[in-house]
Fold:
Amino acid sequence: MVITLISNIVIILTLLLGFCLSIEHDLTIIVPAGRRECFNQHIREGQTFDFEFQVIEGGDMDINFILRTPSNRAMATEARKQEGIYTYDTKETGEYLFCFDNSFSRMSEKIVYFDIELDYDDQDEEVNSPAWFDMAGTLQEYDISIDEIQTSLDIVKEHLRKAQQHQRMWRNIEFRDRYVAERNYERVAFWSILTCVVMITTFIVQVFMIRSLFSGTGKVRT
Structure:
């Protein structure tokens, strides 16, 4: 019984390793005004990748986005977007190009967060599956099949991926809202100080003008 339980645990851990094999990159960059920043990522044919970006600071917090395949075919083209989430199954092997274009802005630089996750499940499935099914007999006592475990792990993995995606999205939204609030505070403080300075200056000028009307040195003859 103990040996069977250990074997089941080994199989489950093997499945987890197989289903969770992925590479994730995230980066926050500054795109200067009037400039374009591009990044390359090598992706194999048949892989699935998730890409997400969000403008978190700068101007109206929008930017142009372009995604191109190794053959220079446009997979996604977005104009003046604040955020975007994409999932693609690749048809080509090579360098995929991710570009953030801020050329339409002449004064405001943009701070952009982006994240890319590469999924290697399809590539490794053929290598790992025979080992899983060779050991499937040890699970018969518990009426559990490999297919059921695979389905459950697929669901868990998808839920975890969505949870991470939502956490990143809400973190960026919070950062962006904080940026907007701080900028609004700076604007309100600036105009409040300017208004006070104008009012004080106007008051001083009026006082001197009124005093000048009553400070005449000429003598009145009767």
